[in-house]
């Protein structure tokens, strides 16, 4: 347990995070998004944010990669390619200011954007719009470097495509996987040492794989209409929570 916990966590906290990783992965697999932000909120109460964001990103990379491998045949390949190309622009833009931008302000910006896409007048863009797909990748990847859990933001961008359940899950997981890969590269480049956290991260990824499998079983039993209603409600609540976190700092 001490090997997993390191110097900043108690053994009980480390075990709690491993169990929570399974639960939050199940939530994301079943309802489309939300698990990553739930995990981020708990991790932020136990560790400094400069550690939370890169470590959380690595755990989410494993979780989303597991989900993608189980649903890859449903992937919207065009969306994934353009999202990834836009993501390269986003991470390059973030690289010069990653240590200076105010985290609390970014939380409010992300929350507002999510709520607008869910409840406002959505942009008049075709589902196949290359510009929208580039911009979705660039903007969400840029913001994810500072906010940590960008799942609600990416999910709201995919929401306008009106995907069916499994196509949404596969495309969301693929986009999040590439985004968290960019994050790991960026934080490694600026000097974050992942090695001491690998035992905990590996354990959380393994438990998350079990949660993902359970969540996908639940997903197949949910009707399309119910899935979309729950998905929209979950994203709205998480966006409001994110905005509240940002406002409290002011």
Automatic annotation (TrEMBL):
Source organism: Pseudoalteromonas haloplanktis
Membrane topology: Multi-pass membrane protein
Family note: Belongs to the 4-toluene sulfonate uptake permease (TSUP) (TC 2.A.102) family.
Membrane spanning stretches: 12-31, 37-59, 80-99, 105-122, 134-154
Record protein name field: Probable membrane transporter protein
The keyword Transcription regulation is annotated on this UniProt entry: no
Keywords (A to Z) from UniProt: Cell membrane, Membrane, Transmembrane, Transmembrane helix, Transport
Localization terms from the record: Cell membrane
Main location: membrane
Cleaved signal peptide residues: none
Domain of life: Bacteria
């Amino acid at each position: 347990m001490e090997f997993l916990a390191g110097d900043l966590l108690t053994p009980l906290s480390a075990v709690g995070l491993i169990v929570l990783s399974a639960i939050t992965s199940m939530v994301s697999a079943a309802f489309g998004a939300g698990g990553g932000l739930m995990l981020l909120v708990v991790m932020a109460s136990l560790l400094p944010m400069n550690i939370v964001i890169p470590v959380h990103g690595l755990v989410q990379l494993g979780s989303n990669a597991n989900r993608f491998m189980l649903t890859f045949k449903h992937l919207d390949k065009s969306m994934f390619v353009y999202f990834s190309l836009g993501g390269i622009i986003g991470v390059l833009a973030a690289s010069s200011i990653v240590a200076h931008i105010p985290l609390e302000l970014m939380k409010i910006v992300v929350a507002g954007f999510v709520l607008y896409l869910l409840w406002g007048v959505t942009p008049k863009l075709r589902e196949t719009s290359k510009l929208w797909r580039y911009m979705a990748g660039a903007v969400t990847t840029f913001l994810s470097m500072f906010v940590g859990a960008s799942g609600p933001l990416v999910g709201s961008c995919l929401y306008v495509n009106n995907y069916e359940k499994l196509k949404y899950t596969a495309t969301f997981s693929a986009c999040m996987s590439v985004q968290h890969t960019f994050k790991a590269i960026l934080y490694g480049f600026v000097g974050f040492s992942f090695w001491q956290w690998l035992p905990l991260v590996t354990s959380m990824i393994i438990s998350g794989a079990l949660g993902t499998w359970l969540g996908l079983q639940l997903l197949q039993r949910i009707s399309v209409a119910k899935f979309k209603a729950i998905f929209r409600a979950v994203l709205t609540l998480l966006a409001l929570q994110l905005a509240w976190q940002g406002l409290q700092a002011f």
